[in-house]
Predict the 3D structure of the following.
Amino acid sequence: MTTTSSTARAARPKDDARDQAVARTRSKRGGTVWPTYLFLTVMAVMWLIPLLWAVYTSLRPKADTDRYGYFSVAGAFNLQNYIDAWNQGGFITYFGNSVLITVPTVILTLLFASMMAFAVSRYSWRFNVTLLIMFTAGNLLPPQVLATPLFEMFKLVQLPYSISDSGTLLNQLYSVIAANTAFQIGFCTFVLSNYMKAIPMELSEAARVDGAGVWTQYWRVIMPLTRPALAALGTLEVIFIYNDYFWPLILIQTGNKLPITTAINNLQGQFLSNYNLLAAGAVITVIPTLIIYLALQRQFIAGLTLGANKG
Amino acid sequence: MSAPLVALGDTEVGSGAKQPPARRRRLRQLNSQDRIVLGVMIAIPTLIQAVLVWLPTLGSIALSFARWDGLALSDIHGNGLTNYRFVFAESPQFWPAVLHNVTWLAFLAVIGTPLGLLLAVLLDSKIRGTRIYQTIFFMPVMLSLALIGIIWELVYSQDNGLLNFLLGTSGTPRAIDWFGNSHVNLWAALVAATWRHAGYIMILYLAGLKGVDPSLREAAALDGANGAQTFFRVVFPAMAPTNVIIVVITVIESLRAFDIVYVINHGTNGLELLSVLVVQYLVGETQVIGIGSAFAVVLLVISLVPIVIYLSRTFSTKER
């Protein structure tokens, strides 16, 4: 991407010329724009249908959908399904667990990954590229590849009951935090090391001349300059961890310790005969991500493309 | 919209060529306190990775050659290739799972990814409301695949699903149980997965398209190339770095597919995948760790192909 994005920047004044050229080719063939709009609009409607259908179903009482069928407009519309789903589903516990897992995981991941990225990108030492490759590779593996031994390891660790009610690392939120952190560090290290590599070495030199040690250079010089990348990655990781289904599925055995994404399984069983409740439960689960999405869309997309474009 | 971040990093690298940059410091030049601090900063993340990622991966390989019920470590007994013999020759689920993974990859490669590319190309041109379209297409990317399974369950259900209402088969014997019928449920799950995948690919290609030098298109347009020619002969090849990442993402996503089929029916009855087989031998009543590990190793070996290709490309261009 080195050449392409820098030239894109330099060439911005030429955009007008490009637009004119594009406009000319368009007008030559005349009216080529409306099929594009038609296609995009049809696709957009199709894209929205599953979500809108869930919202629509969730707003109707079961009695009415039983009477008129789900594919109908008759009957009442209210929020009763949300109230019932909230009361029956144990959402507060699940959301609480999601927060208890997501917040520490994202903080720890960014902290450890930035430390590693700093060491890899600002200093040259033997094996630094090798380690970076190993970190990146670890994140690309399907988690199922290492799930069984990790589960067995956690089962074998004996802990006092004061810090673990199961006596092992299984069925503990901090085990999920550990597994998620380990799995995400690789990706974040890769992205952050690319970002830190681009910060001029002269800044570190100047700080060093002023007597700043390694930690001061990391915490006071490099980290503040990495803030845009940390914000983008942080948003991305919040969504990733909130949406993680797999590690709690493997590591947590009791329902009241599950985060919301994995608890969906139970919800499905619980509400199976009542699609209105299931729809309301699904919509409730969507809401936190939707809020983050609408508030931090730019950060989220920046995080995704930051990771991908650094090829 | 990601351009500032991406451009910032990249242009700085490029500008390094103009003036000789300060070199990265070598460890020898550090005093002992700094060396210790740096050592700790490297050691903590590396230890976490080693213990929780690399060691279990090696553990899968080791256990795949052993017989173990998952209870006491002293009960682990080597049994050579027995587990692999079972996986390849006897397991009734292995070859269907491979076929399903291949189908998953083919569907995403032929439909999901090109659809994302098409959306990106259309939205990259001067379209009114492009942000609204982008927001809509990108929305499913924010959702977990588990939740996507539930949302589509409401569409696919036999008696109450939207699809059968639209097809006019609802309530008749011809109504299809889209997630329950083993002839169609893989395709139904793939449509739901594509709902998310296409938006993801769209965003990555939108960033890629912004990086293509506009003067290339201009030149092609002035030379009389039509839209399709400009795209396929000029713009698409210019996006080579993005294309590589998209290929890798598509392959890895199809190997990682798990959540959605597990939510639908725990990956049974037509939805078997390699990732599911690993988990079935882990959480099932009879813990046959060796066989589950053998499935994990097969998945590992296949996954290493795209991972090695990606890493060798990424890190070899970086050294230049």
In short: The beta strands of chain B are 25-26, 66-67, 77-78. Chain B touches chain A through 132 residues (CB under 8 Å).
